[in-house]
Amino acid sequence: MQTLMMILLVLIAIQHLGFMYLEMFLWTKDKGRKVFGLSKEDAKTTQVLAGNQGLYNGFLSAGVVWGLLHPDVTLGHQILLFFLSCIVIAGIYGGFTAKRSILFIQGLPALIGLILLLL
User: Any idea what DSSP says for residue 39?
Assistant: First the structure.
């Protein structure tokens, strides 16, 4: 169970690095626009907002990595609880305000990770 949790948490950290890269660097590029279903005009208009959002995803990834690598297991556990909770909340909010798939793509893996962490 511990190994499964660790693998999932690493994948969550990688996933959020991917979100960061998409939002900060590919938002106005063909690939980024395709992923998010944006026109050139909409992508250009929202580029600064997306970059800011990407930065936050980078912080979420860093928090999960910090929790995984922290030498004090108890503190690392608390760090993971905080950052996974933040990701779950962001997934719920995004799922209800932006796009339903965010709930499953972002929120569900973090919720599973949180449950595994609490077991």
Answer: -
- The two tokens of residue 20 are 């960061």
pTM of the model: 0.93
Q: How many CB atoms lie within 10 A of CB 99?
A: 12
Q: Which residues contact 88 (CB under 8 A, 6 or more apart)?
A: 107, 110, 111, 114
Q: How far apart, in whole angstroms, are the C-alpha atoms of residue 55 and residue 115? A: 26
Query: For the segment 24-69, what is each residue's pLDDT rounded down to a tens digit?
Result: 999 999 999 999 999 999 999 999 999 999 999 999 999 999 999 9
d(CA 95, CA 44): 23
- 63-72 per-residue burial string, b: 16 or more CB within 10 A, e: under 16: bbbebbeeee
CA 55 to chain centre: 10
